[in-house]
Amino acid sequence: MAKVQIRDCKFCGKMFPVTRKHPNVQTCSYRCAGLVKRMFHDRPCDVCGAVFRPKREGARFCSRKCAGIIHVNHGLSRTREYAIWSKMLLRCYRENNDNYRWYGGRGTYVCRRWRESVAAFLEDMGEAPSGRHTLDRIDTLGHYTCGHCEECKENQQPANCRWATKSQQVRNAKNNLWYTHDGKTLILKDWARLLGLNYHTLWMRLFFCKMTFTEAISSTRRRRRQKQSNG
């Protein structure tokens, strides 16, 4: 049988031939193959959360039953809500996802009711009001929780998700700077809109000219009054 290549055994490092019939073989013998399986560390199942030892690299489910839950014929796979639900799971549990470090890497998880069923997710959240609305966490330091399943009650987690537009999500970001004036607390963009000021001008006065918030507003007001008096 023709040889495809010579490969290093994944367990013992011994060189062995790889044939065309079995091009994906990673070990030189059945013994090494069994030992490699024991090398994988225990990990939680992506669906039920039970800890299991994977038999192969990249295994995500502890049983065929859990693997089948993802493929249940729910009739929602072509909906926008299904895509949002799927992306929520990927950024929380798939380590090679581009956004994993901001979610799953920081400990953010999805409650069991939503992990196991997209239908349950849609039942709790309902359909997105419009194409501009996406999934948003009310508490950006919290998790994707429904608030009423057994896991949420056990961990005392409230319902923490809503449908929100991009502008609403920006106002809910962790890195927003809030300013208080005349008894109101708003982010800078909302203050600019409320006072009828140019946002970039206000930002430049605060961060480039090192003015206080009151000075930045009063300076703008002073110029407006001068223009009105000259006119």
Uncertain regions spanning at least 5 consecutive residues: none
In whole angstroms, the N-to-C terminal distance is 95 Å
Structural class determined from secondary elements: alpha+beta
Our count of helices gives 10
User: Mean of the pLDDT scores?
Assistant: 78
Main beta-sheet strand count, sense and barrel state: 2 strands, antiparallel
Q: How many domains would you count in the coordinates?
A: 3
Count the E strands.
Answer: 8
What share of residues is helical? Answer: 25-40%
- The percent range for strand residues is 5-15%
- What would the principal axes of the Cα set say about the shape? elongated
How are strands sequenced across the largest beta sheet?
1-2
Gyration radius, rounded? 27 Å
* SSE series: EEHEEHHHHEHEHEEHHH
How would you describe this structure to a colleague?
The chain has 231 residues and is α+β, with helices and mostly antiparallel strands. It folds into three domains: 3-39, no CATH class; 72-171, no CATH class; 178-230, no CATH class. It has ten helices and eight strands. A two-stranded antiparallel sheet has the order 1-2. Strands 3-4 form a two-stranded antiparallel sheet. A two-stranded antiparallel sheet has the order 5-6. It is elongated, with a radius of gyration of 27 Å.
